[in-house]
Amino acid sequence: MPVLLIIDMQVGMTWPQADVRNNLDAEARIARLLDAWRRAGEPVVHVRHLSRTPGSPFWPGQPGAEFQPALAPRDDEHVVDKHVTDAFTHSGLERWLHARGLRELVVCGVSTNNSVEATARSAGNLGFCTRVVSDACFTFDQTDLRGVRHAAEEVHQMALANLQGEYASIVDTGAALALLS
């Protein structure tokens, strides 16, 4: 039974200062996955980033730290709070999954090259069968250390390439939904 792991789909990710992004339909695809998992009665885990940096939109208690209403967890869905990019670090997520015998993860959310990549790397290293849903993740434009700006889609594709094979399998929404069959 695959667990749907939704990463950092918080209100602050929708604010203009979040910068230029790719996959403008990612939230709709995540909502589609969430609905399918709920209808199938399969486990869903919502990951929430709570920043330790004062003034961050993700500072606890701030509106930006709240889940986006359309993707908010139900009372029976597990919520993991994290303070770093990786959802496994100091969160109890690994223990929660093992206690339930859950070994397959379907990962979606934001940012592809940040929390999604960090979490998928850890999941793969911990032995979980991990799939990252490429069209249900997104990221933002990035400037490299040379000062060269890279488009969000390029950053997204490179992050997925970093994961493919060694840490995770990269799938699209259709392939992720087929796992419920």
TrEMBL record:
CDD domains: nicotinamidase_related (cd01014). Signal peptide: none annotated. It comes from the Bacteria. The keyword NADP does not apply. InterPro entries: Isochorismatase-like_dom, Isochorismatase-like_hydrls, Isochorismatase-like_sf. One of its GO terms (molecular function) is hydrolase activity. Pfam families: Isochorismatase (PF00857). Keywords: Hydrolase. Transmembrane segments: none annotated. Residues 3-173 form the Isochorismatase-like domain. This is Cysteine hydrolase. It comes from Pelomonas cellulosilytica. The lineage of its organism: Bacteria, Pseudomonadati, Pseudomonadota, Betaproteobacteria, Burkholderiales.
